[in-house]
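thought: fold this chain, then report.
action: predict
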Amino acid sequence: MSRLGIFVDRKTLSSSEQLTALIRCRDAAEEMGHSVEFIFPVDIRKIPHMDALFIRARTDPMNVTYVASRVAACAGIPVIDDPSSIQICSDKVNMYMRLEKAGVSIPRTLFLSKRDLHPGRVREIMDGLGTPLVLKEPSTSFSLRVEKVDDPVSFLRVARRFLKMSDWLVAQEYVQSTYDWRIGVLRGRFLYACKYIIPSQTFKIQDSVNGHVVYCTVESVPPDSVPGHIRDLGVAAGRAIGNGLYGVDIKDGERPCVIEVNDNPSLEGGEDGSYPHVYREIVHALLETKGEQAT
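observation:
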C-alpha cells in the first residue's frame, strides 16, 4: 500500500464542489489499495514521508504550493503539479514561447515591453494583429488581467497598468467564440474533454460584470464526440509544457489554436462528467507508474 498526500488549503475546501472532488479523489485512491492523507500548509514537513503528492490548491511560484512541489521533487517523490510546470504555466511569455517552439498553433502573439508603448508602435501592433486585440499580464490566472482593447488609447491605458506588475506584456489577436474547448492531458495522453460556454456578458470564461462575478457553464463531452484535431492539438500542447497534468484551452475556428495551458486544472465543475475514471488515472500515474511521457 502506497501513501498519497493531497495538498490542500482553506480555499480548496471553501465550496461543496471542491470538497466533493477531493472526496472522490480520496475514494478512488483507497479503492485502488492506497492510503490518503490531506496535507495543509502547516503540515508541509510530512510531504517527504509520502509516496506521491497531488496538489489541489492554487499554484503559483510565489506561494506555498510551489514550496510543497519543490519539497516533493527534492525528496524524489512524484508530484502533480511539478515545479517546472508551475513555473511555466504561471508565466504566459514562457508558456507561449514553448508552444511556438513545439509548432503548436496559438493566436498571433507579440511580447511587448515598455519601449513598445508609444503611439506609432501601438498603431503598428494593432494593424498587424487586428482590432480588437487581447492584452495579458504574464502571471494572470482565472482570467484576471486579461483585457480586450479596441483602439490605441485603451491599449496604452491597459498596457501601462499591466507593465507596473511585469516587465513584459502579451498582445494577441482576438479569436471570437461562444465556447472554449478544455482538453485534459495527463503524462502526455488525453484524459478528458469539456466545453466552457462563455457568458454572454463577456469574452472570458470568468469575469466581473457590474460588480458581479459571472462564470462559464461546463459541458463534459464524451470521448467519441471530441473532434480528432481538437484532441490532438490539446495533447500536443500538454506535451510542449511537460509531463504533468494540464488543462488546455482551445478555440476552434478556421484555424484552431491554443489559448492557454493550465497546470492544476479544475475538476470540481463537472469537467470530468463523462470520464468516471479520471481520478483513478491520476492516482495510477502518481503511484503505479514511473511517469514516462507518452510517445
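thought: worth noting. Residues 53 and 292 are 17 Å apart (CA to CA).
final: C-alpha cells above.
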